[in-house]
Structure formats: structure tokens, C-alpha cells
């Protein structure tokens, strides 16, 4: 059969577009001299990496990775904070057909060991000044910096069994909290993440000239959303160092010095800024956009933000790691009086939300709560090494189970509003968001119950007096156990859980109240805590609502 060279070249180019690196570094999307990454390494200093420099660094890293002769699909642990080099490295993994697994340098060692055991990576990469040592063989180890990638110890692997990366291969694995006490690895393919980026970019949230501050650490997929939004729009990403995000003055300084035009982050990054630095925030007249994700934005704080940034477009981004996100809805400015819940809009182009009742019935009437099921080309491939959890989340299409098509069962409740958009209405399970971080209460409870002095534990979110939620736990100690206090239990949690999963408050109790069904009565615990704090009863309802 004769081949049309231009047709096959076009076809090959189109396939290449479905890889993370080729999509984000597509020369058609940016001008080579435009800034791709803008950083603030210290007060009064900014560094700019252009698209041409980012592309060159990516290729340099990719060459070093390719020289290791690993097979497509081999995993690389990327233990770093976001920055131009870390971004180049994750793009280089994509270019070399390898799967990156972003991990925070603050990860407690037992948790890192668990991840290494679980994903059996070929290579661990950290920054030049990274402090991780004594990593077990056959894992290879390397360090990266502005000068390139230095392999300290080559991975001990067999000859590659495959050679050709496919867009259906995993691009990355993001670990989130897991109900069973083990973190859950969300495996996302190139094809899915690129489909998500295409749907997101259709919203026209950013354009060339924008500088998008990303306040999420690299190990959360929100940072990958931000990188995709920036690079996919020909704009620049401004990674804010995680240590500065919670310090209003530092955060505002970084935004000012880097010329940020948009800030993406979980709603809680704004709390201290609104309280302590409203004038400095209002002075940032170059800020044209805010995108938040991860949890509901408390409405009084949102109104305050709108007052201070009256010209900013504020976007409510809803969704879960399992599809990177689902929807982007503009928040009306000003928020109409009487608004009780924000709209999450409708699914991004190419995807569709379906609500399903507890009886399995598809809900078509407005106002009736149902569980969000998402049909989308951007769904994750499955949970790493967990077919059971995968089957419970990627379920047959409720409208046509015969088709073999899977949709994402989200665990989120929503109602359809008369205008066809959706409003978020809580969770069906005990997953909660604490400052935008996803926490399975079961994972925290298991860790607490592993303490030699504990016999039972219940975790739940409790409202903080100044707004927001904190993670609290109630623990029953064995009578004959050596004495242990709340501090010991917290330290025990911190040994193996990331800091956002360590309960800020631990109360020792004689017993845990139970419901008529014999389950731990979290509502009663929340009510008790509210009573102790002298809070109004509706605060207890709010706390229990997140932990049904
Ligand atoms: P992401 O990293 O994409 O924010 P996670 O996987 O950490 O998501 O958490 C997903 C969960 O967070 C959702 O299932 C939902 O319960 C909650 N969530 C995310 N975004 C929003 C939002 N805009 N409004 C309300 N809840 C949200």
C-alpha cells in the first residue's frame, strides 16, 4: 500500500500531541522567549525561565533519563518542590516514557518507604541539596539542578521489555489518603491528562502574558493543573514555595515581585491574607484572576475577596484527583444576596455529570441530591495495585451498563439547579477536606489505633473559631497501657503521616459514642466538642456534615 508521507507525518504528530510534554511544550502554544516559569528565590529577587530554556532543560534531562535504558512505564520518584527544574524534570519523564511520582521532601521516612515498596520505582530523583539518603537497592538514585541530572547510582533493572511509549501509558501517579490506611495511588495516563487540559483550556481562563501563581505543592495534582493551565495557555507558572504560602506578607510579596496576574490555590490560602493584609492585597491591582479548588469557599470570605479584588475573575474549580478536576464555574460578582451554595457549573467540554440516587436511579429532576458520576475522556486508569478500589470507583455507565463504558463514581453529592448547573452538597463517605487537603478519616483512625496505648479512635473535622476546619481525634486508651498523652499520639501520627493528616487536636475519652447501627457517632462527638467550646449548635452540624 502506498503511503502519503505528509499524511503519516501529520498522523504521527497528532499522536505525539497526546503526551504530556509534547502538549505542554508545543511550540504553537507559546513564543519561545516568553516566560514559562517565574520564581522568587528570595526577597527582591526573581528568576525567569523562558519557554526556550524550559524546552532545552527538558530535553537535557530526558537525554540523561533515556541513557538509563529503562522501559516505558518505569516509575521515577520525583522528590522536590515545584520550580523550573522540577517542572522540566517531570516533562522529561514524559519525554523519556517514564512515569513520575511526585513526593514532598517533607514526607516522613516510613511513608516514603511504603511508597517505594508499593510503586517499586526504578529511580529516585531529588534536588542537589535534598537530604534523602540510604535508599534501598535496586532503586537508582540521582540529583537534579540547573546543570542537569547527575546519576549517583544506576538503577539495577533488566533489559527493557518494551520500547514505544503510548498515550495510554501512565504519565504520573499521585498518592492521596486511602481508607484502608494505605495511601491510594491515582494513576493518570497521558491521554487522560491531555484530554483534561484541552477541556480546561476551552474555558479561556488564562492567556499569553499571564503569570499564574501556583500555591499547591508538587505532590498534589492541583499543581499539575496549574502547570497545565499556564503552559497550555502560553502563560507563565509562578510556583510559590510551600513554606511561604501560609504567611500572608510573604505570599503577597511573591505575588507582587513576580508580577502574578492570577492566583490558584485552595480557599484557605486566603484566610490569613483577608484577615491581616487586606490593604496589601487590594494594592495588587495586576491580579486579574483567582481560581480555587479542593473545597467550598466560605461565602463571607469569598465576598470579602471580591470586595478587595473587584475586577478579578474568580473561578470555582470542582473535581477530584481521579479526573484532575471536573468543572470550572465563574463566581458571580458580586455574589447575589441569599446565595447559600456556589454553583460548580457543568463538566468541562468533553465531559458530563450524571447524578445517581442511593437506589441506583439516575436523577433528572432539579433539586434532588444524587452522587456525581462523571463521564469523561480524562478519567484516571485505576488505583495503583488496587483492583477492588478501582472497580468501586470506575463503575459501569449507569445509563447503559451494557456498553462496557466506565464512569467515575465520585463520592460527592450534588443537586442540579433549575438552570442546569450543579451545586455541591457534601460527601457520601468519611473523606473530608482540611484546608483543601484530602483526608480519609479512616487512615488517620487506623494510625491512631496502631499506637500501643490506644484501643479505639475516631477522627473528624471541627470548626476553628476564626473560620475553617481543623482535624481532631478522640482516642480511647487501654486501662493497663503505659500512660500516653495527646502529644505522644500526635508525635506517633507525625512519624508516618503527612503533616496535614496529623490531628491538630486530640482528646482522650473513656469511650466513643455509637449510633443505633453501632457505628461511631461522629455527630455526637462534634456536638460534644461544640458544647465544650461553647459554640452554637449549628457549628456542630457543620462539622458532622463533612463526616457523614
Ligand atoms: P483536587 O486535588 O483535584 O482538589 P482531591 O482529590 O484532593 O481534589 O479532593 C477531591 C474532593 O474535594 C472532591 O471529591 C470534593 O469532595 C472536594 N472538592 C474539590 N473541589 C471542590 C469545590 N470546588 N467545591 C467543593 N468541594 C470540592
Short description:
The chain has 548 residues and is α/β, with parallel strands linked by helices. The strands form 7 sheets. Strands 16, 17, 18, 19, 21, 22 and 23 form a 7-stranded antiparallel β-sheet that branches. The protein has a 6-stranded mixed β-sheet with strand order 11-10-12-13-14-15, with helices on one face.
Question: Could you outline the blueprint of secondary structure elements for this entry?
Answer:
Layout: H1 5-16, H2 20-24, E1 35-42, E2 45-50, H3 51-66, E3 75-79, H4 84-95, E4 99-103, H5 109-119, E5 123-127, E6 140-145, E7 148-153, E8 170-176, E9 184-189, H6 190-201, E10 211-214, H7 221-232, E11 236-239, H8 242-245, H9 248-258, E12 262-265, H10 271-276, H11 278-282, E13 289-293, H12 299-308, E14 313-318, E15 327-330, E16 343-345, E17 352-356, E18 362-363, E19 370-375, E20 382-383, H13 387-393, E21 394-396, E22 406-416, E23 422-427, E24 431-434, E25 437-440, H14 441-449, E26 454-463, E27 469-477, H15 486-496, E28 505-509, H16 522-533, H17 537-545
Parallel strand pairs: 3-4, 3-5, 5-6, 10-11, 10-12, 12-13, 13-14, 27-28
Antiparallel strand pairs: 1-2, 6-7, 8-9, 9-20, 14-15, 16-23, 17-18, 17-19, 19-22, 21-22, 22-23, 24-25, 26-27
Helix pairs in contact: 3-4, 6-7, 16-17
This protein binds adenosine-5'-diphosphate.
CATH classification, class level of the largest domain: Alpha Beta
Provide the β-strand percentage band.
Answer: 25-35%
Indicate the overall shape.
globular
Biggest sheet, in brief? Answer: 7 strands, antiparallel
Helix content: 25-40%
